[in-house]
Amino acid sequence: MSNMERLHRIKYMLQHRKCVPIEDFMSELEISKATFKRDLEFLRSRSKADIEYDRFLGGYKFKDGTDVNKIELTGLWFSEKEATALVLMQHLLSSLDQSGLIGPHIEPLSAIIDGILGQSEATTKELRKRIKVLGMGSRKNSMDNFSEIGGALLKRNRLNIKYYAKGKNEETEREISPQRLIFYRENWYLDAYCHLREGLRSFAVDGIRSAVPTNTKAQEISDKDCQEHFAQSYGIFSGKATQRAKLRFTPEHARWVSGENWHGQQVGSFDKEGYYNLEFDFNQDPELVMDILKHGSGVEVIGPVSLKNKVKAELEKTLKNY
After folding, report:
1. Whole-model pTM above 0.90?
2. Paired residues of 244 in beta bridges
């Protein structure tokens, strides 16, 4: 363990345990008493950490009133592998940001990483040049309200929004209690409790025409309830699952589909002829129909009948265009 990593570990232990006996430091960090004393002196003198020994509690702690979050530990070091991983992470994140939502916020990170690598800067440029992420399904619409949405999420306040629903081609004004942001299929969605509809809804962020934060506290929905509502059904079209899809893919298409994740609780299996049978629960089906149509003659809808009829009707309408 490096000296700097050890100093961060000492700070972390003090922050989270409040009072730590010296024996715990020596045991967990695998250091001697003398080494701990030197680290303690460094934190006190160089990082201005107000750390004291509490005889009553029998351990070290931050003095009452000390703002531990303001303690600075300079000299952050990375190995070559760690620095390379940082470059890849930053570049992939930038590439995924097709809508320009977070680009301005992570640009400073690029400069910091290049500064850390120093002489290896040419390597960072080479890595960025050699890695490409193509966002084919992302929508490049303006998302000017992203910061307001993020602020309301963190402060746990409600938002007044004007929302344009592309499917219905209509705009509505709503008061919502934001619960979480989802990055799904290269686009952003906001899961929220809609006070107009009195239920959980998912909003495409690029459909939010305006977002005005309020001082009213958001209505809290438990993680369990959000998970049950948004995770049971297929894709972003959420709601409690009411139907079960059964699809059968040809051996050719099975080579791709068998490795894909269509649903968190999907069940897939091959039959003796090499066909791949895929089953999962869903509620609304617009997105599911689109995914099925992408496979053309390579898939057959076994059930339910309503889903089979919708796919058939869509294919018949498509044929009329040719």
Report:
1. no
2. 281
Decide the pairing of beta strands 208-217 and 243-249.
unpaired
Give the chain's radius of gyration (CA, Å): 27
* 3-class secondary-structure state, position 299: strand
Furthest-apart CA pair in the chain: how many Å?
86
Residue 189's CB is within 10 A of a number of other CB atoms, namely 20
Residues 6+ apart with CB under 8 A from 143: 99, 100, 101, 188, 205, 206, 208
- For residue 20, which of 68, 48, 65, 58 has the smallest C-alpha distance? 58
pLDDT tens digits for 95-148? Answer: 665 555 555 656 656 665 665 555 444 556 666 666 666 655 555 555 678 878
How far is it, in rounded angstroms, from Cα 262 to Cα 198?
Answer: 29
Cis omega (within 30 of 0) for bond into 251: no
37's tokens: 């004393």
Instruction: Give me the torsion for CA of 197, 202, 204, 210, rounded to 10°.
Output: 40
Q: Give the residue from 66, 74, 53, 54 showing the smallest Cα distance to 15.
A: 66
